[in-house]
Write a structure and sequence with these properties.
By secondary structure, the protein is of the alpha/beta class. The protein is built from 16 helices and 14 strands.
């Protein structure tokens, strides 16, 4: 009996070494079952007899009988459907990432978002985001926690924890025990410089939102989290409403300059055709104005593809549209732009063809895009 116990211990050790699947679907769910079946076959006395003798002084000797071979085949037949079921479930999955591909072994259950922009899309697809970075409270487009107004009530209802505002705090992130960390590649909420350190805490997914629609961002997040059905539900819901609203619109004079204006620094950021805002406007039938060539050349030095900065003299010449759509502001911002001396020569400003689209249009996701549809319908509905 003591001898058999020693053989069991050795068998477990060998089986653990032989059957660790660090990148495979067995790692979490079936490894113990595999080890157990192998041990039974290897050391079962009686009917099967000892199949393997484990010794540090002697090589492993296997004596297979017909029954033993049948047992191994039976083991394979039992395990293969388990492997197929796990693979068919879509895990593990490889998703494009900052450095090659990220292997995600199982559906995440504790997602931490270091990007306030991406948190809204995670919520919209039903991903289990447990905590998020925030902006500094007090800004016009966030609530008293620093969460974007368009989804802050959803975050509160789902118990999403506010982690920090500003530079990422790795200790606070680690304390949440995340099994997936989400990072934006660009923007003021990007934690990309911390990528290597974050990757040591948990698998870290990098999403670039500056050249994608919010729908594309949702689908990328869904691929990594297994929430494809949630993403398609939100996208289809929005698409249906977009079609209805588009049919009701009487567009203002085209083309339009779509921008975010900062009255304190007399500067603005124009949305490009690659931005989520630009893609949404064009889908609704708007045409984006093209700024002068010298401004376009200057913007090519930027890493971001969604904005063209206008400062000083460029602010005076960069607003070339016959209408101006102001994102991330209300009527207060509209009044400030109409009073800005640098843009007095713009035809849209002179003709007062300027509309404010609301404070929650700063970053687009499912929630803010729907709010923006409502605002555009209010402003430009056919009479």
């Amino acid at each position: 009996m003591a001898s058999m116990k020693k053989e069991c211990v050795k068998a477990i050790g060998y089986a653990n070494e032989l059957f660790v699947f660090p990148n495979g679907p067995f790692r979490y769910k079936y490894r113990f079952q595999i080890v157990k079946i192998i041990i039974i076959i290897l050391i079962s006395p009686g009917l099967f007899g000892p199949v393997v003798s484990f010794s540090r002084k002697e090589p492993i000797i296997m004596r297979f009988s017909v029954l033993r071979l049948f047992s191994l085949l039976l083991c394979a037949l039992v395990l293969f459907p388990l492997y197929q079921a796990r693979a068919a479930d879509g895990w593990p999955r490889n998703v494009p990432n900052r450095k090659g591909e990220l292997v995600i072994h199982h559906p995440p259950k504790r997602i931490v978002s270091t990007s306030i922009t991406l948190t809204g899309s995670l919520l919209a697809i039903g991903a289990p985001v447990i905590a998020s970075a925030a902006a500094m409270p007090g800004q016009r487009f966030v609530d008293n926690q620093g969460f974007f107004r368009q989804w802050s009530d959803v975050a509160v209802a789902k118990g999403v924890k506010r982690l920090y505002a500003g530079e990422p705090n790795l200790e606070i992130i680690a304390a949440e025990k995340p099994d997936l960390i989400v990072v934006s590649a660009t923007g003021n909420d990007s934690a990309i410089v911390f990528y290597d350190r974050l990757s040591k805490l948990a698998p870290t997914l990098v999403i670039n939102y500056d050249n994608k629609s919010w729908q594309q961002v949702e689908r990328e997040l869904a691929q990594a989290t297994g929430n494809e059905a949630g993403a398609e539900r939100s996208i289809q819901s929005y698409t249906q409403r977009e079609t209805e609203v588009k049919a009701k619109l009487a567009l203002p004079p085209q083309p339009v300059s779509a921008l975010v204006y900062n009255p304190h620094g007399s500067k603005a950021n124009l949305w490009t055709r690659e931005s989520a805002q630009g893609k949404m406007l064009e889908a609704l039938g708007f045409t984006l104005a093209t700024p002068p060539e010298n401004i376009l050349r200057g913007s090519q030095r930027l890493k971001r593809k969604d904005i063209i900065p206008l400062v000083g003299e460029n602010l005076a010449t960069g607003i070339t549209g016959k209408s101006v759509l102001m994102f991330a502001t209300d009527e207060t911002g509209k009044t400030a732009l109409l009073s800005e001396p640098l843009v007095a020569g713009s035809s849209a400003i002179r003709d007062r063809q300027v509309w404010a689209l609301g404070n929650d249009s700063f970053r687009l996701d499912y929630y803010s895009a729907n709010h923006l549809l409502t605002r555009l319908e209010q402003l430009f509905a056919k009479s």
